[in-house]
Predict the 3D structure of the following.
Amino acid sequence: THFGFETISEAQKEARVGAVFSSVASSYDRMNDLMSLGIHRLWKDHFVRSLNPGSRDSETGWNILDVAGGTGDIAFRMLDHATNVNLDLKTKVTIADINADMLAEGQKRAQETPYGNSGRLSFVQGNAEHMPGIDSNSVDLYTVAFGIRNFTNKDAALREAFRILKPGGVFACLEFSHVNSSLFNAFYKRWSFGAIPLIGQLVAGDRDSYQYLVESIEQFPTQEEFKSMIEDAGFIAPGQGYENLTGGIASIHRGVKP
Ligand code: SAM
């Protein structure tokens, strides 16, 4: 059932992605730690720090939308940063995710943070490709971490991000990417195709979901291709347009809405 390379309809892909995340929701963090040797936490810390959410002198704070926000990993970091670094108690984050099980896990975890009942965190269920509940030109920062790879229609999601961002607003994506050194790539491929499905089987009892995750990384556009997709949606990519993390295992792409 290595469905990554099969030709499947959009509805089938969406249903399968749904099944994968329902299956991994409760073991999600433990698996991420094992699969990335804990590095995903450093990448997420860096992602949030580099975006520097919140502002010392804004009366309203930032309106942040974390799409595919699942278990809240990025949203909690955003609020921590705004609060502790920028002394901003107004910035708010909305977590949007297509999967009710991932959102439920995020809601449960939010209760263990200072933000659970603060009014600064909200959860909406929805598809990133079409978010009619979110007004045009209303969001300061749109983040998506390890999510866009799973979207059926990535261009539609980028266009939707463009619509809902304010002019000057930032689209920021943290995603698995492509390793640029062939020697490092050889080791990395052995790890991802060999060890990750096995770890998935042993720890979560679910080899297929983790096999899917590995295959979806392989299929994701290269850094340059993804940068072009962001520009095609109307964004301006600042500088090189992306930053490679750990030799390109992951990368951060940014786009600014003019
Ligand atoms: N952002 C979190 C993180 O970094 O830990 C969760 C990432 S998790 C790998 C991917 C998430 O994307 C899942 O919660 C899944 O439900 C969500 N997702 C997949 N397709 C989606 C779509 N079309 N719209 C919104 N969310 C989607």
Residues 17, 21, 67-71, 73-74, 97-99, 102, 127-129, 145-147, 150-151 surround S-adenosylmethionine (CB under 6 Å). The radius of gyration is 18 Å.
